[in-house]
Specification:
The protein is an alpha+beta fold. About 30% of the residues lie in helices and about 35% in strands. The chain is built from eight helices and 16 strands. Strands 8, 9, 10, 11, 12, 13, 14, 15 and 16 form a nine-stranded antiparallel β-sheet that branches. The N and C termini lie far apart (about 85 Å).
Length: about 350
């Protein structure tokens, strides 16, 4: 009994200390976090003023697979909004509003968590230069009741960590966007070039089909749609989360009656795949002889022969031919392909 009374006295004493200490903690706080990202503001700003984009890379949302969203028009800029909730934890829910926008310069978010009437106010400032963008986050936390003011002591570290992870996610998304854009700019068609290729991870399907007029291309179109639908519908990937599709074959199999190939789409990392029809394949870093080709799909044979002939002239061995479809393969008479032949001694 004495120990119980002693314990109660100790608890009351600690509670009194806590209550007194709360007099020295502000009911709300403001703090600033600065980040720099190596992309111009024209590419960065749309990832912030469009809440559908924002929810994809912001770690608070993207790290939680159980998070569900609803977006309301207008879908970008001042007046746009979204609600979120966790499908398994009903306590995790809230609303975000864009209250102010000065395009390419400033934004103001209002974030309401749960049933709280007092919101977070988040002001963002964007400053660009030398193809980089400096982002300043100015965060005003909600007013907390007297006995909950201690939350303000931990909010800054938590938010700073979330912003740091979010910026890494954003860099990854923008890198995929820029890679696709750059790949299609200033292409020199029908010229043999040498390129150093980085590792690529492909998710795709193994196929064998007849090498007859129209049959091969129709088969490619069918399997392109099959792989793309799996990645976008089953895996939920957006168009800037995967690369241009690659078809891997023996370089000279255009002579054969049947063609075996792997058709895959690049992803950034391996995922758990439940469908046995699909598999991962890694393309290792290599030095490639490359020709960009545009024309009928049947016409690709001439530049492929040119690649093989050059490798033979240079006394180099060659690997599997990689056909990267820079445009969706849906027109047999107007294919846009990067033909890559790995070479080595």
């Amino acid at each position: 009994m004495r120990f119980l009374k002693f314990g109660i006295v100790i608890l009351l004493f600690l509670a009194a200390i806590y209550a007194v200490s709360m007099n020295f903690v502000d009911e709300s706080r403001s703090f600033t976090i600065e980040k720099e990202i190596s992309y111009p503001v024209e590419k960065v700003f749309p990832q912030f003023n469009n809440l559908q984009n924002f929810a994809r890379w912001n770690a608070f949302f993207s790290d939680d697979p159980q998070m569900s969203y609803q977006f309301f028009s207008p879908y970008e800029g001042q007046g746009s909004s979204m609600t979120y909730r966790n499908l398994k934890n009903s306590g995790t829910m809230g609303e975000i509003f864009i209250r102010y926008e000065n395009p390419l310069h400033t934004l103001r978010y209002q974030l309401f968590e749960g049933k709280h009437n007092s919101p977070y106010l988040i002001d963002l400032k964007f400053k660009t230069g030398n193809q980089k963008t400096k982002i300043t986050w100015i965060i005003h936390t909600p007013k907390q009741p007297f006995l909950k003011r201690s939350l303000n002591l931990i909010n800054e570290d938590y938010i700073a960590e979330q912003i740091d992870r979010s910026m890494k996610n954003l860099v990854h998304i923008l890198a995929n966007k820029v890679d696709k854009e750059e790949q299609r700019k200033n292409l020199k068609f029908d010229s043999l070039m040498v390129e150093d290729a980085q590792n690529q991870l492909l998710l795709g399907i193994n196929v064998t089909t007849k090498n007859m007029k129209n049959t091969l291309f129709k088969n490619i179109v069918m399997n392109h749609n099959k792989v793309l639908n799996f990645i976008t519908m089953d895996l939920g990937k957006r168009d800037d989360e995967y690369g241009a599709p690659v078809m891997i074959t023996d370089a000279d199999n255009f002579k054969d009656k049947e063609v075996s190939y792997f058709y895959g789409i690049p992803l950034s990392r391996k995922l758990e795949i439940s469908d046995n029809n699909f598999s991962f394949r890694t393309l290792n870093a290599s030095r490639n002889y490359v020709i960009y080709y545009q024309g009928s799909y049947a016409g690709r044979i001439k530049p492929i022969q040119q690649l093989l002939l050059q490798a033979k002239k240079d006394s180099l061995k060659s690997g599997y031919l990689q056909q990267t479809f820079l445009e969706r393969p849906d027109d047999e008479n107007n294919a846009v392909i990067k033909l890559s032949l790995p070479v080595f001694k």
